[in-house]
Design a protein that fits this description.
Layout: E1 3-7, E2 12-18, E3 45-46, H1 50-53, E4 58-64, E5 67-72, H2 74-87, H3 93-96, E6 97-102, E7 109-115, E8 123-128, H4 154-161, H5 175-181, H6 185-199, E9 210-213, H7 222-225, H8 228-242, E10 246-250, H9 261-283, E11 290-294, H10 296-310, H11 327-330, H12 332-335, H13 350-353, E12 367-368, H14 379-398, H15 405-419
Parallel strand pairs: 3-12, 5-8, 5-9, 9-10, 10-11
Antiparallel strand pairs: 1-2, 2-4, 6-7, 7-8
């Protein structure tokens, strides 16, 4: 195994280590739950085709003093758990990691988690929110509940802000405490947050530097998300309730709710809107310093297209120019090929979940370590590039003495080109 430190100044460091793709699988699944989202051999998933394995033959480890929060649905949870794996030493979690789960049917899903401190003294947290952080969705109670699954509330935010370092227990505000101390959610939140800051308690998190804010597309209508006003409000609310002045928004990938070419065009439109909103907020010189875009959709689209080639889903032989804007929309027919016979309400595309094309009579196909179900992604495969991408993007802001909008934009492009596309990593990245 060879390794090297790619980012080494100031606030965040990223170390890359060469490892065979199949040997890196367990690295990113230390905290993965629930089990159905896993893509191991025992889950019937075959390795990536050889044409793809070369892009995923490394792992990444993180060292940072930044306080980072992942906000979103179960896909956000997957990559928050992968980030924890990259930022916690083996066994460290038993003294620093806390979580809360909620019962759906079976199995339970993680609602909130926090690791404090992680390697370097920072914090890594996950907050399950399956809607946008809008005022209209802000409802009590604070505890995790499937009944209130598409609501969020400031009491949950307080749980993170008031969390003590080296604690393995999450303490949430009670209904009684809320009823006794305020008339509105916002009033309660402001009272409690101010009280926390006034104590000057250095042993609690108090605020976050960064939020990775994912649009929970599996829960929302495409037309609902395709709205700049809502996305802007979600960004502003994230800053208001957790303090993050740098926000990263991943672009949307293909998922099994995309039923038609028109749906797929809408996903592309939302991704263009994410880039536009991020640029506008960053240039507005508000309290939010930077909104960065992680081109996760670009990476997954390229992987799916290469897997489609491997499965002979593409009937012509020509190289696809992945730098051409809108290439994925032009090839919608490849992305949307799905089994004609299936028992699933939301069937995945062949390129997402199959290693070989199923027979005409088959309802299932041999799996591949890309996606377990057409919605979630195999962190065994994508964990390294996702984690390295987040570290690289944060380095654009926090590892530079005086970042400018122009320098950050150029750096963001380099990070996405390097980690959120099928680009080979140079040997220099693994040298000490």
């Amino acid at each position: 195994m060879t390794s090297g430190i790619l980012l080494h100044d100031n606030r965040i460091s990223l170390s890359l280590h060469k490892r065979a793709a199949e040997a890196a699988e367990s690295y990113y699944t230390r905290f993965s739950e629930p089990a159905p989202y896993l893509c191991r051999d025992e889950q019937g998933k075959q390795n990536l085709p050889s044409t793809l394995q070369k892009y995923f033959n490394f792992i990444a480890s993180i060292h940072t003093d930044l306080k980072i929060m992942f906000i979103g649905d179960s896909i956000s949870a997957q990559f928050a758990q992968a980030f924890d794996s990259a930022a916690l030493d083996m066994g460290q979690e038993y003294s620093v990691r806390a979580k809360d789960t909620m019962s759906v049917t079976s199995p339970d899903v993680v609602c909130m988690s926090i690791s404090s401190p992680i390697r370097g003294g920072g914090v890594s947290a996950f907050w399950r929110v399956t809607n946008l952080l809008l005022k209209e969705n802000n409802q009590w109670p604070a505890h995790c509940s499937w009944v209130t699954k598409q609501h969020w509330n400031e009491g949950q935010a307080l749980t993170f802000l008031n969390h003590e370092y080296n604690s393995t227990k999450l303490v949430m505000p009670s209904d009684a405490e809320y009823n006794q101390n305020s008339r509105t959610l916002t009033e309660f939140w402001q009272q409690q947050k101010l009280a926390s800051f006034k104590t000057g308690n250095a042993n609690v998190v108090n605020t976050f530097d960064v939020a990775i804010l994912r649009l929970p597309h599996g829960w929302l209508e495409l037309d609902y998300m395709n709205n700049a006003t809502r996305i802007n409000e979600a960004i502003e609310t994230t800053y208001r309730v957790v303090g993050a002045t740098t926000i990263i928004i991943p672009t949307l990938p293909l998922y099994n709710n995309v039923k038609s070419e028109n749906d797929w065009k809408k996903v592309a439109q939302i991704n263009r809107l994410i880039r536009e909103v991020a640029r506008n907020v960053t240039e507005s010189k508000s309290d939010i310093q930077y909104v960065l875009v992680q081109e996760f959709g670009n990476l997954t689209n390229q992987v799916l297209m290469e897997n489609a080639k491997n499965m002979d889903l593409i009937t012509y032989s020509r190289d696809i120019d992945y730098s051409q804007q809108g290439w994925e929309v032009q090839l919608a027919n490849v992305f949307l090929q799905r089994p004609s016979k299936t028992t699933r309400q939301w069937p995945p595309s062949h390129a997402q979940v199959c290693s070989t094309f199923p027979s005409s009579e088959a309802k299932t196909c041999p799996g591949v370590k890309i996606s377990p179900d057409g919605m979630h992604w195999c962190v065994e495969t994508f964990g390294a590039r996702f984690t390295a991408s987040i570290a690289c993007l944060l380095g654009c802001v926090y590892n530079v003495a005086r970042p400018t909008n122009e320098s950050v934009q150029k750096c963001m492009q380099r990070c996405n080109d390097k980690f959120m596309s099928l680009a080979m990593l140079s040997d220099e990245m693994f040298k000490n």
